[in-house]
Amino acid sequence: MVLFSMMILMLLTIISYAASKTANTEVKIARNEYLYHNNFYCAEGAVVESIDKMEALKAIDVADFDWMMSKSPKVDNDPELFEYWVDDQKTAEDAVPETAAVCSSAEFVAIHQGVFAGSSLDMSKPTTHAFAVYGRSNNRGLVMIKVGYMKEY
Q1: Which residues pair with 134 in a beta bridge?
Q2: Most buried of 13, 39, 46, 110, CB within 10 angstroms?
Q3: Domain of 138?
Q4: Residue 148: which residues within 8 A CB-CB, separation 6 or more?
């Protein structure tokens, strides 16, 4: 009887240990998901903030804003853009990421990609310009989003 009791006790100990390990893993998963969602919403808020700033302007001159730049070989593809955010050797033509008001860990950059293909080149009509707006949040995890934006002016 004592041997049977010891076996049951050992079995219950193993089951409780496995359950506590599973619970710890679930807590870590929930924490990581929370951080990801928080970073995503901060990056999205940064993009919306930059688009609001551009929407308020009648015409956009890239030279007027530090956080805007014309298309550049440094940011022609997305993998290079990850390095661009941390590159300390930017030239005067390069955009400086601006910290978003919505979240202190979020920044944004807008890249003017030129006149939208297929838009009218008639000088009497407004021309549609294309922008790539990037938002980035780096708070115990990194999220970067890219949104296309078009404006006529």
Answers
A1: 109, 146
A2: 46
A3: 2-152
A4: 130, 131, 132, 133
